Amino acid sequence: MLSAAHDILSHQRTAGNQSHVDPDPTPTSHNSSSRFDCNPVSTAAVLLADILPTLIIKLLAPLGLHLLPYSPRVLTSGICAAGSFLLVAFSHSVTISLCGVVLASISSGLGEVTFLSLTAFYPSYFLLLTSPGPQDPRGEEDSDTAARQPLINNELWRVPRGQRSSPASRSCLLTFQGLLHYIIPLVLVYFAEYFINQGLFELLFFRNTFLTHAEQYRWYQMLYQAGVFASRSSLRCCPIRHTWVLALLQCLNLAFLLVDVWLSFLPSIYLIFLIIVFEGLLGGAAYVNTFHNIALETSDEHREFAMATACISDTLGISLSGLLALPLHDFLCQLT
């Protein structure tokens, strides 16, 4: 949906045309007074439609989603995903397309919470799953023992029972406090990368290439996802413990590309391509290493809650980036 954001917002549909992709290879200027060739609405609008329902689901998930069996959650997620593609594919208006994006967001948020929580019960898997038996959910015990550190100090639990307001709520609060040093860097990583993706990609427009504006935008999104896929698959090769380093590098990416949007000093789109691949590598590495570290450092009894709670990080960062990207788009598109 985010890769199609530029097409969803810019394509003028007619009664006989149900395609989001403009077949005309000639770039069309949407705002002739601006050097950025802006759409009337920022692609951040699609980002917000894509992320706000996910944010609501993830905020509510730790409060009781675990009481709902996994099977109906997976089924609901699948139905919403299929419905989202059909709605966007056959719609004739931006409004209906955005409704399809909302369905995709519901599917994504519910699916992510569900499958991340399921990792608390399975050591590793590649093709098929069977029902979890009496096994160690942490997986390869011997190889990971050295990397484990307690996420929560057990001394905090040695409080007289009469002084505890609620054991369950105290357990959740202490687990959340232990997660903060992973949650905060992941929020920053996703804020920076989605500010780039939905706030700057549309404005990183090169007129001296064979690619149209819409094609450039799609290439940016594809290269970003390729980088994410590669780094999310690299955990066994290159585990990273200090995820704050990834957050710092991603923020530097944002600052560099923001300056380029303002000054247009990079001479070639291929340099942008390389930076975007690097951006995707940082984002994927931050995600997979954050949840891997949490799985290692959380006790068995708290792991399912911790995984469901920590997944709010990326969604929160994305939501903040969408809210800030909208006014940035309007400001920059007024420049001549």
Automatic annotation (TrEMBL):
Bilayer-spanning residue ranges = 44-68, 74-91, 98-122, 179-196, 244-263, 269-288
Location in the cell reads: Endomembrane system; Lysosome membrane
Choose any GO biological process term that the UniProt entry carries and state it.
Answer: lysosomal lumen acidification
Note the topology in the membrane: Multi-pass membrane protein
On the tree of life, the source organism's domain of life is Eukaryota
Give the signal peptide, or none.
Answer: none
- Give the keywords, sorted: Lysosome, Membrane, Transmembrane, Transmembrane helix, Transport
Quote a single Gene Ontology cellular component term: lysosomal membrane
- Pfam families documented for this protein: CLN3
Q: What is its main location?
A: membrane
Keyword check for Transcription regulation, yes or no: no
> Cross-referenced SUPFAM superfamilies, in alphabetical order?
MFS general substrate transporter
Provide the residue span(s) of the region labelled Disordered: 12-35
**Which InterPro entries did the record assign?**
Battenin_disease_Cln3, Battenin_disease_Cln3_subgr, MFS_trans_sf
Family, per the entry?
Belongs to the battenin family.
Q: What name goes with this protein?
A: Battenin
* Primary gene name: CLN3
